[in-house]
Design brief:
The chain is of the alpha/beta class. Helix content is 41%, strand content 13%. The longest helix is centred in the middle third of the chain and has 24 residues, at 128-151.
């Protein structure tokens, strides 16, 4: 399918939660037709009948606006310990949550689904015995989900390498280790949702190095403008591009050189709830799409 521009729907949380509203924004105002739907807009913890109604509304608007729900992911409110929670009962609860999330995504025939790998508490991470135990539980949890995902028709699971050790995957070696461990016994492959702006281990903060390392194994790549040592999730406007380290031509060159031939490049841009930013959300997103349209047509 090649490279496709899309958007992570985190931008809509608490701002444009109505499917009919965000559908119009995505397709008509931004000119995009691929999305990564987030759990904060359709959460498996909700009442089943309400979820059914949300699925109905989302299906209707995506059909009318020619939008493909290609991926599902956790987001701001669902960025929690989940499969690496220190409490067994909580891990089991989140295992069930992800299974329901898989079922929701299958309604849209999504290609993949994922999250961060899991977050350890400080108490867990700082204790070697606890750390190793919870890591094994996290790996087992993802492996179980991979077999359920296979039955539901997904092509891959994805996880996002994060910025600090207890959030998992903050170095290239650690990310490869997690992939290898899960894929030792997986129904479908575990791959990477790569974010070009994450600021991981201080020795590996060049985003282009990460793209070259994982581009061929990243069906989803999050796009944000940022500066070195930060993960700003800024838009690609003239103001932010002036000092930003993400340049469209260089990024696309690295993606190609990585061996990646097929990926959703999804904008993951955030605006703080602040009077200075409220009216800039849509214009900033439009500018970001226009910036990348120079190099990606889909």
């Amino acid at each position: 399918m090649g490279y496709r521009l899309g958007i992570n729907m985190g931008f809509a949380i608490n701002k444009y939660i109505e499917p009919e509203v965000w559908g119009q924004i995505v397709a008509e105002e931004l000119g995009l037709h691929y999305i990564q739907l987030v759990a904060d807009l359709i959460n498996p913890f909700w009442d089943k009948e309400y979820i059914k109604d949300q699925i109905r509304r989302i299906k209707a608007i995506t059909k009318s606006q020619n939008i493909k729900v290609e991926s599902l992911f956790t987001s701001a409110f669902t960025r929690v310990n989940h499969l690496m929670n220190p409490d067994k009962e909580a891990r089991e609860m989140w295992q069930q949550w992800f299974e329901r999330f898989l079922e929701i995504g299958s309604e849209f025939e999504a290609r993949n689904i994922g999250s961060h790998f899991g977050i350890m508490t400080f108490d867990t991470y700082n204790n070697e015995e606890k750390r190793e135990y919870i890591l094994e539980k996290g790996i087992e949890g993802w492996q179980k989900l991979s077999w359920r995902a296979r039955k539901l028709g997904y092509k891959e699971l994805i996880f996002e390498p994060m910025s600090v050790p207890r959030e998992m995957g903050n170095t290239i070696a650690k990310t490869k280790y997690l992939l290898d461990r899960v894929n030792e016994n997986s129904g479908i492959p575990m791959k990477v949702c790569l974010d070009v702006g994450h600021a991981p281990d201080p020795s590996e903060r060049d985003p282009y190095v990460w793209v070259k390392a994982f581009g061929a194994n990243a069906p989803v790549i999050h796009l944000q403008q940022t500066v070195l040592n930060r993960s700003n999730h800024s838009p690609f406007t003239e103001e932010y591009n002036r000092d930003g380290i993400i340049e469209r031509g260089k990024l696309l060159k690295c993606i190609r050189e990585s061996g990646c031939e097929d990926a959703l490049l999804a904008f993951e841009i955030s605006h703080r709830e602040h009077c200075d930013y409220e009216e800039r959300i849509i214009p900033d997103l439009k500018a970001s799409v226009e910036y990348f349209r120079e190099v990606i047509n889909q």
